[in-house]
Design a protein that fits this description.
Cyclophilin
């Protein structure tokens, strides 16, 4: 039988929440999926410590926290580089590590990207709400009391039988190059792409956009060349999916993200392909983003290759 270990939050960072791969199937009730903003990094960190890919971990945003471990366990960090140290010694990304009882893991400000993930062997243990442990920040649903972590919180995790036996692993550099290095976010034509001329769609795909300060888990507002539609009137409100690129009246696009509203009336010029959603999760305010249109068939092919790479070819022993 598994027992519970615990982690004390010494400092929480800017916004550290518990996330898994999200809760799906409730959009008709107005509940968006939530889950890890960069699901690929969460999945890889879970694989590194021997968890199921959908186990809950900690998502840190822009500024990481500090955590004291009650007992020995295996951990891994993935995603952006937050300059993590374990008792003052640098803890590398994309590599599993053994943490001993009483040791303190400290993460600083991001040095690349927006989010870093801490996974512990056994997985963070919180009650599931609508089938998921994820924190939906906008509605205070799930996670740890429905909120970001605070100093003094104690987080439990499931200790596997037999303690923390340890075989160090890392993510292959070749896998990282394919999974996290991308010059453009790939998109397919959105359901209202025909409301924009060929010239406007070309402008969208050839322009440089900057992530505005108004960027969070609900959506990322972009600053750049405005996209003018053929007809100014709004649509009848309809369901909107994760990754939809909406164009409001000012013409500056918004990427709907993991805590997006589930309905909307702005036209959607494009949709971020499933294989690139995790890249959106690493965008910070003032970051540059470019887009590339691809076919739906190509998007399906890319997702299949990504799934195969993560599940069967991503790790190597040290």
């Amino acid at each position: 039988m598994k027992s519970l270990g615990s982690i004390k939050v010494i400092s929480s960072g800017f916004q550290t929440t518990i996330q898994d791969l999200g809760r799906y199937g409730y959009a008709h009730l107005g509940v968006s999926p939530s889950g890890a903003a960069d699901s690929v990094s969460l999945r890889l960190a879970n694989l590194l410590v021997g968890n199921r890919q959908d186990a809950a971990g900690l998502e840190m945003t822009l500024v990481g926290g500090a955590f004291e471990f009650e007992s020995s366990c295996v951990v891994a960090l993935a995603g952006s580089d937050f300059g993590a140290t374990l008792d003052g010694q640098r803890l590398p990304l994309w590599t599993s590590a053994l943490v001993k009882a009483g040791q303190v893991l400290r993460c600083g400000s991001t040095q690349s990207g927006a989010r870093s993930y801490l996974c512990i062997r056994g997985g963070v243990s919180v009650p599931h709400v609508l089938g998921s442990a994820s924190t939906h920040v906008m509605t205070s649903l799930g996670g740890f009391q429905g909120r970001p972590l605070r100093a003094g919180d104690v987080i439990s995790y499931q200790e596997p039988p037999g303690g923390a036996s340890f075989r160090p692993q890392r993510v292959k550099e070749t896998a990282l190059q394919q999974l996290v290095k991308r010059e453009a976010v790939r998109v397919t034509l959105g359901p209202q792409a025909d409301l924009f001329s060929d010239e406007v769609r070309s402008l969208f795909a050839s322009s440089v956009y900057h992530v505005a300060e108004q960027a969070n888990r609900m959506g990322l507002r972009l600053s750049g060349p405005p996209l003018k539609r053929r007809v100014a009137a709004d649509l009848v409100t309809e369901g909107v999916p994760l990754g939809a690129v909406q164009v409001p009246h000012d013409g500056e696009p918004i990427i709907l993200f993991v805590e997006h509203q589930t309905t909307g009336g702005y036209p959607k010029i494009a949709s971020v392909v499933s294989a690139d959603i995790h890249l959106v999760g690493q965008l910070r305010p003032r970051d540059v983003v470019r887009f590339e249109f691809i076919s739906v068939e190509r998007a399906v092919e890319l997702l299949g290759k990504q799934e195969d790479l993560i599940s069967t070819q991503s790790l190597e022993s040290l």
